[in-house]
Amino acid sequence: MATKKHDPREYSRLVVDGAKQAAARAMLRAVGFTEADFSKPQIGVASTWANVTPCNMHIAELAREAAAGADAGGGKSVLFNTITVSDGISMGSPGMRYSLVSREVIADSIETVVGAEGFDGFVAIGGCDKNMPGCAMAIARLNRPAVFVYGGTIRPGVQRRDIVAVFEAVGANAAGKISDAQLNEVERTAIPGPGSCGGMYTANTMASAIEALGLSLPGSSAQEAVGDAKRADSRRAGEAVVKLVREGLRPSDILTRKAFENAITIVIALGGSTNAVLHLLAIAKDARVKLTLDDFTRLGKRVPVLADLKPSGRYMMSELVAIGGIQPLMKMLLDAGLMHGECMTVTGRTLAENLANTGMYLAGQDIVRPLSDPLKKDSHLVILYGNVAPEGAVAKITGKEGLTFTGRARVFEGEERATQAILDGVVRAGDVVVIRNEGPKGGPGMREMLSPTAAIMGRGLGDKVGFITDGRFSGGSHGFVVGHISPEASVGGPIGLLRNGDAITIDAVKREISVDLSAAELRRRRAVWKPRKPYAVAGVLAKYASLVGSASSGAVTEPVPARLKNPLA
Fold it and tell me: Which of 31, 99, 338, 414 is most buried, by CB atoms within 10 Å?
């Protein structure tokens, strides 16, 4: 790490130094500060602990480890909490509207506490899906030395079950494939304890992306939630932040355009969640880095899918952990010229330096394929444009369900009606399910569609039904699914003009999504279109709906032009 001229107490000095700050010191003494602590860098530890979800139930322990590491490294740690909500619990209910909103609340609250308290650096620890991007957005905004710690993946349930197995069992039960007793047995045995959902769903995807960005210590994204490795990772993160503070290495030194390309590359190679598109765009905006949907297409043409992980693959994250995690994969991609080795990381070393002594996967494993024999030669994340999505849409197409689909629209205003129709057998082979008014503004909150997609898979329709929405998908969704359709229905996007029976074509080869209607017919329908009444007129959902932008640019609130200097730096 190159030494810089830097005051390690750049921010805390303003809070605790001098006679005029005696009141601040008095209050800090009450929370445990000693006289010596006032001369140390202050390190915040942002914990997302809660008993709301198994993803976060253990994070208080990890936060204490991070604080101990910061203290051992010569800083003075201060623990604080931010929120989390459970995507798995709220899925399919009105509560899911708060999921994406929570990303903004997490980022805002970490920014608020770190900025208000004058912390010189901080550790952020996250478990459930929106924790990761929320923490990373705060790190980018504040531009103070920081390290992200992933809470870790859950261990498999009985018969290698996980939360998606439960959702799909609901569909199988509705189709008469399993009994009520069998469904209950799946429910009781799928979630054995702490940790984030066990496939390459959104939490594991975003943890991997953030490690590839350089904001986590090597290996942090591929560890089980329970065990010595994760506790040690947390302690090392606390120590690392103190070092970053002393050396003056900031997130802006790490979060370059090439770093975001590294993150996109690892997401593709792992077969990761469509949510990564939304979240990386949002993090990039806060980092003042220009990133667009088309960057995913550009990189996707040369990066293959290599990891055979759930939901579309066979293996779970814990099984990838057992063979070495993502470090050997990153080394493979780096050696092939698919990653930028010169990018700086929170170790104070470059990505290439971090990977210099990393070995390859042992022979005989088939979780991660070699570059010479990929699962898919290009990206499974396909950006589509067309008269249904003029500003773009994001498809998750592995090729297992085919590369093109044409069917008749079956239109639903909101998720609940669609899910019930699927469970009741109303949706049939050849249909394209259209769920609209679920976008960032129209939902509001852009709910994830795991319940209906899992019901489709459970009924055996995964390769027989298309699915499009202005909402988004859980990382556990798979099938012929297209989300993030922009503009969304609530602002007059074409998805709001579709009618039952319209012929819709999804073409992953041409990267197009279109409806077989003339421009004149679309204009006629738009002339009589009326927006729906807002779901919320007060509170956080109404506030979010009034501020949020398009999914095509990350669904962020209050976007700041990249040309403006970060006022918090």
Answer: 99
